[in-house]
């Protein structure tokens, strides 16, 4: 009797494990590569739908709460990770921008978020469409996109671009994207983190299960950094979420308002 | 429609700390909250909604609020853009409409005008929904991106 009960319990447990595993199997494309296709939210580690992951306190965060989860945001320096390794002169410029953030932030002027900022933010979703020959990424934030040809070379006649020029290849189950051809008009990750047109970025996208892509990015810019700067973040699958239109210039009141605050002598530096 | 600032001031520190403590993940704001709004000046107002602008990058709404003397003052509030609102359950022209009496919790503008950042709205049917992110969103984090020497 006991043996039968044990067998039944074991069988049930195996069934549960197998069901759970099937629920979270890594999706693969027809060519056998992990399929990154889907709508994703950056800057989060929460599983579930958009509602389930963000419903509790709504989207947004202070960036000033040291007990908050370690999640990257585009305005906040990632907690617990190394600061950006800027050259001395450049570090001063970063701090200056920090105190003029409403004006100096490219996105305050409705310009594209650039990289890796656009990938790591969480207020807006991004959609990846993967084919064997190219990967397309659509970012709701500022309505920008990237076309990433697989196993291609960067063109030799690049026009400096906000989102750079991307080419990808697979290293095992990781999509590696090499990005160059940037202009110098975006921020990397955190308030004031400017860069030059010499910026070179390597991104690594590893879908570790159905819900999550691990994102690792290394930024090199010998004109402003002393060494490469590496950050890690994650993208979480948001099934049922659709991208909306985001036309930032529609009613952008911020820069004029910020200028007026400065003019009026209102104290706006951090407290 | 009573202005409730004095009452709220007592609660404000607690509310702010509660809001900060419950935060999930810092994510992006379009611009710096801290540049325009003062996280040390929480405010709760009840009034009649007069207009809503569902615009990017941020939405705004206007509220007629009676002050201590009974004079009606029109306040302006800022919050998420339409896409973010839609994803968190808001529906244009349905969730709240001009004429509705609502209560708003948020933070005042640094310049002291009748203008604030909205966080939580209590709708006329009693439901509570977020119209904007917590104080400090997009304010540059705990430390600058570089070491301060």
Features:
heterodimer; A: 271 residues; alpha+beta; 9-stranded antiparallel sheet; globular; B: 149 residues; 5-stranded mixed barrel; 3 helices; 36% strand; disordered N terminus
What does this structure look like?
The complex is a heterodimer of chains A (271) and B (149). Chain A is an alpha+beta fold. Chain A has 6 helices and 9 strands; from the N terminus they run H-E-H-H-H-H-E-E-E-E-E-E-E-E-H. Chain A has a 9-stranded antiparallel β-sheet with strand order 4-3-2-1-9-8-7-6-5. In chain A, a hairpin with a 4-residue loop joins strand 7 and strand 8 (212-220). Chain A is globular. The termini of chain A are far apart. The model of chain A is unreliable at 62-74 (pLDDT under 50). By secondary structure, chain B is of the alpha+beta class. Chain B has 3 helices and 6 strands; from the N terminus they run H-H-E-E-E-H-E-E-E. Chain B has helices spanning 5-21, 33-36, 82-87; strands spanning 37-53, 59-66, 72-79, 101-109, 115-122, 128-130. The longest helix of chain B is centred in the N-terminal third of the chain and has 17 residues, at 5-21.
Describe, in short, the structure shown:
The complex is a heterodimer of chains A (about 270) and B (about 150). With about 270 residues, chain A is an alpha+beta fold.
